Amino acid sequence: MAGVPVYATSGKHGGIALSEGYRFDKTLLSDAEQNQLLFAVQSLKAADQQVDHLLSKLGSAFRKPPRDWITVDFSRWGLQRVDGPRFELLENAILDRQVLRLTYCGTSGETTQRSIHPLRLIYKDKHWYLQAFCLKAEDFRLFKVSRILELTPTGEHFDYDYEGEIPPIELDPASNANTCFKLKISGRLAFRVYDEFDRESITPQSDGSLLVEVHFPMDSWVVGYLFSFGTDVEILEPTELRRELAEYAEKIAAHHKP
After folding, report:
1. Is 49 within the bounds of a domain?
2. What is the pTM assigned to this prediction?
3. For residue 144, what are the domain limits?
């Protein structure tokens, strides 16, 4: 029905195969679909995959000369030498179901060692994460790849299929654990505002400033994050955070005072 000639042979060494001499009919894919396929293969370079030969073969089949029109590089600036082998190790471990041992630095600054079943790599908000089942916690965990200090295959493999059990990486933003923040940010930092916040949460003001309404968890991270805007941010709500930010600034000033 698809126009592809296949035949079957029975017996111990039998099976289903394409008729000898058959060539792929490129008309099975539209021009847009051919371009999408070439783009998908080309984007694999981001994971340090050697796809030049495959691109050349597809280009010949589609009669489209390979064009290096896009470059996707997820490695950190100046750290491609470190990130490349690490992603290759993680890729192989996920596909081969290898148990890994890692040394990890958590948000508290504490360094821990644990064994994990790596499940998938996730790129979100300019950072790579490894979602895995942690044997120490006996639960799913999300590890920021840049905070993995050491990564070693144990030589062991796991057979359990976690498909269907892996939890979503992001909770509902309307969760009760989040607090509504109203911020007035100077137009001088408009580039950051449009980089870091959803367009629907931004309201330009007549004085050139930007009013931002977002939901964040109320924790120590928020104070440090808002402090990075310096005097270009004014916290309208919650009002108690204004005092916390002022105290944080005073501590930093006292720490660096001669």
Report:
1. yes
2. 0.58
3. 80-157
Cα–Cα–Cα angle for 88, 99, 76, rounded to 5 degrees: 30
d(CA 77, CA 173): 31
Burial class of residue 45 (count of CB atoms within 10 Å of its CB; 0-12, 13-18, 19+): middle
Helix (H) or strand (E) holding 215: strand 210-217
Helix (H, G, I), strand (E, B) or coil at 155: strand
The answer to whether position 185 is within a domain reads yes
pLDDT tens per residue, range 212-221: 999 887 777 8
Residue type present at position 240? E
164 contacts 118 by C-beta, under 8 angstroms:
no
Domain-located, residue 5 = no
Nearest alpha-carbon partner for 215 in 168, 169, 171, 182: 182
How do residues 60-92 score in pLDDT, each as one tens digit? 777 766 665 555 666 666 666 667 788 888 888
